[in-house]
Amino acid sequence: MHALELTRIGKSVILAAPDTHFKVHISRIGQPRIHMTSLKQKVRQFFLPKMTPAFGVRLLLVAAISYIVFSYVFIPFRIKGYSMAPTYANGGVNVCFRWPYIFSPPERQQVVVIRMAGKKVMLLKRIVALQGETVEFREGRLYVNGKGADEPYLRHGSDWHLPPRKVKAGSVYVVGDNRRVPMAANVFGQTSIKRIMGVPLW
Length: 202
Fold this sequence. Notes:
Number of helices: 2
CATH topology of the largest domain: Umud Fragment, subunit A
Number of strands: 14
Radius of gyration: 33 Å
Strand content: 25-35%
CATH architecture of the largest domain: Ribbon
Order of helices and strands: EEEHHEEEEEEEEEEE
Strand order of the largest sheet: 4-5-14-6-7-12-13
Helix content: 10-25%
CATH superfamily of the largest domain: Umud Fragment, subunit A
Structural class: alpha+beta
Shape: elongated
CATH class of the largest domain: Mainly Beta
Largest sheet: 7 strands, antiparallel
C-alpha cells in the first residue's frame, strides 16, 4: 500500500502515489469562493430584485390576492375587553374565518364574530341558544328550554338572573364566557344570523 503525495501548483493540487503511474489532478481550489459569491448574489436578488415589468406584474398580483384573502376570507382582529376571558384574553390577536356557515348553520357553544359597525367594531361571543329556544338565567346558571345547560368553558360562577325569553327565527342567543362581569355591564342577547361574520381560527 502506497502513501499519497500532495503537490500544490497555483490553484491546482496533484495527488500521486510514489513508484506508480497513478496521479489525480484536482483543479480550481478557489471554487468554494465562487459558490459563496453566487449565494450572495441570489440572496441580494431575492430581497432587492430588479424592477422589471414582469416583477411589477407579479407584485400587483400578490397585492390583489392578499387584499381579497384578508378582506373576504380571513380578517385579522385584536380582542379588547374581558367578556370572553379566560377563553380569549384582552389584547389577544386572532383571525376571523368568514365562510364557516356556507354549508351548515351556526351551532350551540360555537364562538362567533358578530358585526356591529362594519369590520371595525365586532363582538366575540359564544352561542348558547338557537332560534325557537327559550333562554333564562337562574342564580347565575343558564337554562335552555327549562333545562340547565352544560357549560364546561366557564371558570367562575355568577349571580345573573334573567326571565325566560324565546329566541326569534333567524337569530341566535350569544353570551360572553366571563360571567363574573355584572349583567348590566355585559353585552349579550339575541342577534341575527346575518350579522355573524365568521368564527375565530383559534
